[in-house]
Amino acid sequence: MTPLLALHAATATLPVRWEATLLGGGWRGSPEDDLLPAAGLLVDAGFDGAVALEGTRRFVVDHRRLVRGPAAATSALVADLVARVERAKRETPTGWCERAAVFAPDAVTEELVELGLVEYREAGWLHKAVRYKAFEILDVGAREAAATRVRDAVARPAHAPESAVALALLLRCTDMLRRVAGATSDRSERALEARRATLPPLAAAVLEALDARRRRLDAVGT
Q: Distance (Å, rounded) from C-alpha 37 to C-alpha 216?
């Protein structure tokens, strides 16, 4: 049994990057599609403590930077992220969302294929030219379990696990929350935002950066 399969067998709660990617349905080609696994990977690394955040935000200038964390990576992909963080120029959470969007989607899909949760979908001649399906979901139950966790987090934000709150906020930042959880109230969204402040610093900063991106896009009508 591979390490990933062993982890899958040992816990019913998958890493945020896996659940976010499953809920994305295998679609690629838009920034939001790529941000699901990318931000999910950063959030997972923050939960693990393998990547940390140092520095502060001063007024509108973000002086926070990603650095190697105190804990060991829990997977090969998180270890690869740690190595990239150490090699790269010190960058903000926003910058790392953009960096991770380049390599994380393929890497997370590969993890899911190894787990047997998805299978690659053969791409046609328009591969990567337009939005396309990169994989088909084999384990529909895993996807539905992730969706249930999101719906529970929206219904009871104060009592939801941190990873479920992070997943719900990530979906909101990529305009997917209502597709998964249905209509949300202002009260529940405010409660989710309040929980964001209690997440590990890196996870909270990544979600905050994506939320700011979403507001900018909404302001210009994109």
A: 21
pLDDT tens per residue across span 141-177: 999 999 999 999 999 999 999 999 999 999 999 999 9
Phi, psi of 145 (to 5 degrees): -65, -40
Helices in the chain by DSSP H: which ranges? 3-10, 16-23, 31-48, 76-87, 93-115, 140-155, 162-173, 177-181, 186-196, 201-219
The structural domain count of the chain equals 1
The model carries a pTM of: 0.92
Is residue 1, in this structure, part of any structural domain at all? Answer: no
Residue written as token pair 């200038």: 61
- CB burial of residue 158 (10 Å; 0-12, 13-18, 19+): exposed
Q: Is 129 helix (H, G, I), strand (E, B) or coil?
A: coil
In the block, residue with structure tokens 């790392």: 96
**Residue 174 falls within a domain, yes or no?**
yes
Which residues of the chain have a pLDDT value below 70?
1-12, 123-129, 222
Output the six-digit token pair for 147.
């969706």
Judge contact between 112 and 45, C-beta under 8 A. no
Q: Note whether residue 197 is domain-resident.
A: yes
CA nearest neighbour of 176 among 61, 25, 11, 18: 25
Which long-range contacts does 216-222 make (Cβ < 8 Å, 24+ apart)? none
How far from the centroid of its chain's Cα atoms is residue 152's Cα?
18
